[in-house]
Amino acid sequence: MKKEIVVHAAAEETWVAVLEDQVLVELYVEQETGRRLVGNIYKGRVENVLPGMQAAFVNIGLERNAFLYVADAVPQRQPNGGEEEEPVPVAGLSIQDVLREGQEVVVQVTKEPIGGKGARVTTHLTLPGRNLVLMPKVDYVGVSRRIEDEKERERLRAAARHLKPEGMGLIVRTVAEGMAEEDLVQDLDFLRRLWHQVEGRIKRSSAPAVVYRDLDLIYRIVRDLFTADVDRFVVDSREVYERALELLELMSPELKDRVTYF
Fold this sequence. Notes:
- By secondary structure, the protein is of the alpha+beta class.
- Helices cover 24% and strands 32% of the residues.
- The chain has helices at 95-98, 150-163, 181-204, 217-224, 238-251, and strands at residues 3-9, 13-20, 23-31, 41-50, 55-59, 66-69, 76-77, 88-89, 104-111, 120-122, 127-128, 132-135, 140-143, 169-172, 209-212, 232-235, 259-261.
- Strands 4, 5, 6, 9, 10 and 15 form a six-stranded antiparallel sheet that branches. Strands 3-2-1-16-17 form a five-stranded mixed sheet, covered by helices on one side.
- The longest helix has 24 residues, at 181-204.
- The protein is globular.
């Protein structure tokens, strides 16, 4: 079976088609004006602290202030020091213990604004790569629940423990099933460089400001769909073509020769 990814990139929208033996099997469309906010990271300023709701409103530079619940504002910890469970918020803290009006805080959007409600945000940041998710603010190791084989889960968990940067966390994504540890290193290197860039923007920016935009459709296609079983990646924009090559240089340089500018 011949598998191809074909990209049409225009000024206002981008279309991505996935073909198998020249039959359309998937289609993605992203409009420039409709890009999602989920995943974006902002340096914001606390506008109001609401003890009765155990939440705060944070100005992140959008039309409406974002909403930050106490569970998403307090630091996370490992339950019982183990690595089998997801990290949980530190118990017993109120919103007033962690936030005050006028305080600058780095948050990530977890839910889009709806109607009159602002975006929901968290201080528990994540940066997804192709095989791994980096959690720069919590010491944690996890494996996707979709990987069901317990021996494989333990093998990947051991690899993540070995690779995990000190003081940070890693989650192994489903697509990493069957991969050797060395296959994960390149993904981790990319995520560490990305976080280093975000940290630099945080230091240089004044709140409110966006310091990281969840990468666009082209990045997500390259990250999640452009794998070794894809024979050809065709794109009709010189700018997108060059950006795809730059991303592949960091992620999967062995696939660069399959990219074609049409």
